[in-house]
Amino acid sequence: MLTLLKLLKDGRFHSGEALGAALGISRSAVWKQLQHLEAELNLPIHKVRGKGYQLASPLTFLSSEKIAANAAALPWPVHISDSIDSTNAEALRLIEAGCAAPFLVLSEQQTAGRGRRGRKWVSPFAQNVYYSLVLRIEGGLRQLEGLSLVVGLAVMNALHESGVQGAALKWPNDILVGHKKIAGILLELVGDPADICHVVLGIGINVNMQKANEVDRQWTSVQLETGSAMDRNQLVAGLGLQLQSYLDRHKRSGFVALQEEWEKNHLWHGREVSLIAGVNHINGVVLGVDHQGALRLSVDGVEKIYSGGELSLRLRDDS
Fold this sequence. Notes:
CATH class of the largest domain: Alpha Beta
CATH topology of the largest domain: BirA Bifunctional Protein, domain 2
Strand order of the largest sheet: 3-4-5-9-8-7-6
Structural class: alpha+beta
Number of strands: 14
Helix content: 25-40%
Mean pLDDT: 91
Oligomer: single chain
Low-confidence stretches: none
Number of helices: 9
Largest sheet: 7 strands, mixed
CATH superfamily of the largest domain: Bira Bifunctional Protein, Domain 2
CATH architecture of the largest domain: 2-Layer Sandwich
């Protein structure tokens, strides 16, 4: 089916006869494959008598060559899949198999994409960026302090370069445009964080997605914000360069060197929020973050510090 899809990716009309000849199959077999494409990948295909078949919009596939052409300085190899359960899961399998870090895992589609707190990450085919960068960490916990916030800065700046000027941060791992989520981050760690470990920087960015009935929260995408489709290879390359720069700064100087920049870009700085930890809700006002990336809240006039992977932040007036 993907071979057929690559013949249709230009968004032009192709006759059933020409498609069948290219694939070495009958026109009826072409028709069956097209039905599967629509059903399994949720890709609308126009059918016009006398013209043939056409994708509703052109597709650009991920390509390690195109990524390298836009970011030749990136030092890590790229593993690209057509469809996998999740890029983070594949990254963890490659670590287990002995693949040397750093390396990057991308996929056109995720069948079991994951967000924070066990949430599903909706991952339609060839529309968004599903990105997992694996790093080997040596030298202890300091290199992990505030790391997810540093990744957020890189994602935000890559979105700014892509024309989404309104992209800003929400503690701890989201990038929003106004109230709408455009990207999320999920970090996973294996090994001994006090000695040598691997960390997977999982990033999902809504790029060309325009419809997603499965998403139960407000969301947006690069295309919805800018009005035009984007080549995801350019975004992947730009994100890689931003990550390389921010990770180098973090390694040299720690999160403290980036704390002020992060706070300036925190969308909810000074806002009244509820911090959700399981069944507990803690109401307070956002003061900022500390040198390790933990949230600083004013709770009943007293400053308190909160950190942890299972915490979630909501505006008090956000239904």
